[in-house]
Each structure stands twice: as C-alpha cells, then as structure tokens.
Specification:
The protein is α+β, with helices and mostly antiparallel strands. It has 2 domains: 108 residues, no CATH class; 184 residues, Nuclear Transport Factor 2, Chain: A (Roll), CATH 3.10.450.240. 42% of the residues lie in helices and 22% in strands. The chain contains 6 helices and 4 strands, in the order ααααααββββ. Strand 1 and strand 2 form a beta hairpin. Helix 1 packs parallel to helix 4. The chain is extended, with a radius of gyration of 26 Å.
C-alpha cells in the first residue's frame, strides 16, 4: 500500500505533463506552415509551426502507448490486494478529476489570454496601417526614391533571401536585414544545421510586390509592403537526401508582409543601382561578414543606418496548388 501511495505524486506529474500542450513558433523566409493552407482569418503565429507540433503530439501519443503497454504487462504478472487496488483507483480518480478541472480552467484562461493578445495585435496593426502614408508622397522626404525601383528590389531580395536560406548561410544578405532580425533568422537556421537538414525553396517566382505605404517613427522611416510568390518548399535530410517534410511536387502560393526600416537622415543613393549597396565609409560595393564589418575597409556597418533593411516578415496566407 505504501509503495502505491509513493507512486501517486509521480502519476500526478505525468498526467500534468500529458495535459499541457507544447507549442513552438517559427518564422523564416520559406517554411511557413507545412502542408496546411491558411489565410488572413487565422492567427499566423499559430499556423507557422503546425508540422512540428503535430510531430510532437504524435511522439507523445506513441510514448503514452508504450508506457501504457509497459505498465499493463508489468501489472499482469502480479496479484494486487483488492483493498489496496480500490484505494488506489479512488485516489487516481480524485486526482484525475482535480487535474481535469484545473487543466480545463487553465485552458480557458490561456485561450482567453491569446484572444486578448490577438485583439491587441490586430488593433495595433490597424492603427499602424491607418497611419501609413501613400508611397507617392515619400519623394518629398527623399526626392531620389523610386517606387518602381523599390518594388524591383523587393522581388530581387525575396529570391536572394530564399537562396541564402537554402544554403544555410545568410552572410550574402546580411546587410539587407536589421541586426535583430538577422540574429533571429540565423538562430532558426542553426536548428537545420544541427539536425543536418536543408530547407529547399525551389521554382521561385515572385508574382507581385505592392507597397502598402510608409511612415516615420522617431528617427526611422518604415515601409510596409506585400509580396506574393510561388515556390516549392520541402526539407531533406543532408545524409540520406530523403524528404522529411513538405513535398517537391506541390507548389504553394504565399503572401508575406514585409516591414523595412531606414534611418531618416539617409536618402536614396543611385550609385550602386537597385540590387547593390555601397559602404558609407569607403564607397566600395558592400560585402559584410557575420559581424557586420565591411570586407574592404573594416568599418562596422549597421543595417538600416545607410539603406533599407528588413525588420520583420509576417506570413499572410498560403495556398497549395
């Protein structure tokens, strides 16, 4: 009987761990939401990691099945005291009811909190978009700015970002990302590097680029744009070459919202064209290492301080063809 009572805290911990879901969020240039289609009406943060969550749930179910099988086979070989068994069942039932009630209350609170956060986020997005100014008026701030050139640059950047993501090396596009966003993306690529996997983004075609508008926040200009592209998105094992997620036969149409930032005391430079940047210190075509240092003069170049840099990318919708 004492042995059975000692097992109760362990069983309680196991029940709690099985009842609390695990969630993960990821955002990268090409791997947004696995094979499931999604759109504006759903919370993007909950959709981007659906495959990994389902894998974890499957593993937990498998583990529970193994534990159940093991405990059943272990108990089958011994005869339990009827009174002790009855007490044990009563205790487990009481614990289960208490845990279910607690988890149910926690789940409701969690859903309510997420709904509140989502409402706040949507309200902030609406306010931000309402404050956006027409891109045509930006030439008053920057006479050399060309909306057409900017759209071409966005399309070019999208392709370059995807190539760098597949190569698991963001160095070639380092200067087109803010420092914070570069660190975030590179940390996500570390998962692929450590797992010896590659996220392939093939058959890239940018369908459209639209500039939603611009705004000035403190000492920075921000431009928000939407990019719609068609890609083939899948993950392979680097050792075997086998596909571990996604499909190389299904194309997807994805729409993204990009936020780009630049310091307000900088104007457009036409010296290097649309797809190149020049170092503000030495004037050489810019090539940065992982530390954000110009390879030619060794000066530290802060992204966004001399040209537009991507500050955030948000998935808007995905459709599998």
């Amino acid at each position: 009987m004492k042995k059975i009572l000692k097992l109760i805290p362990l069983l309680a911990v196991m029940l709690v761990s099985l009842a609390v879901p695990m969630h993960g969020h990821a955002l990268d240039f090409g791997d947004f939401a696995g094979d499931s289609d999604w759109g504006d009406s759903r919370d993007s943060d909950d959709d981007r990691d659906s495959d990994s969550r389902s894998d974890r749930n499957s593993k937990r179910r498998s583990k529970r099945d193994k534990n159940t099988s093991h405990s059943s086979s272990s108990s089958a070989g011994t005869d339990a005291d009827p009174k002790a068994s009855a007490v044990f069942l009563l205790v487990i039932t009481a614990l289960s009811v208490a845990l279910y009630g607690g988890m149910s209350k926690y789940s409701k609170m969690r859903r309510r909190r997420r709904a509140q956060n989502r409402a706040v986020k949507q309200n902030n997005d609406r306010q931000q978009k309402a404050a956006l100014r027409n891109i045509g008026s930006f030439t008053r701030e920057d006479p050399s700015f060309s909306a057409e050139d900017f759209r071409k640059k966005l399309a070019w950047l999208y392709v370059e970002f995807q190539r760098a993501w597949q190569a698991k090396d963001l160095t070639p596009v380092r200067h087109y990302l803010t420092d914070a966003y570069y660190s975030q993306m590179d940390a996500q690529l570390d998962v692929y590097r450590k797992n010896n996997q590659t996220n392939h983004v093939d058959n890239i075609k940018v369908i459209s680029t639209e500039i939603s508008g611009w705004n000035k926040e403190g000492g920075q200009y921000t431009i928000i744009a939407r990019i719609t592209a068609r890609i083939t998105d899948y993950v392979t094992d680097d050792t075997t070459g086998s596909i571990v997620r996604g499909s190389n036969a299904k194309e997807k149409i994805l729409t993204y919202e990009w936020t780009l930032a630049r310091t307000s005391d900088v104007t457009t430079s036409r010296s290097a064209g649309t797809t190149e940047q020049t170092c503000p210190h030495c004037g050489a075509v810019l090539t940065l290492n992982r530390s954000g240092v110009c390879d030619y003069c060794g000066a530290v170049v802060i992204s966004g301080s001399f040209d537009w840099a991507v500050r955030n990318i948000k998935g808007i919708s995905q459709k599998t063809l």
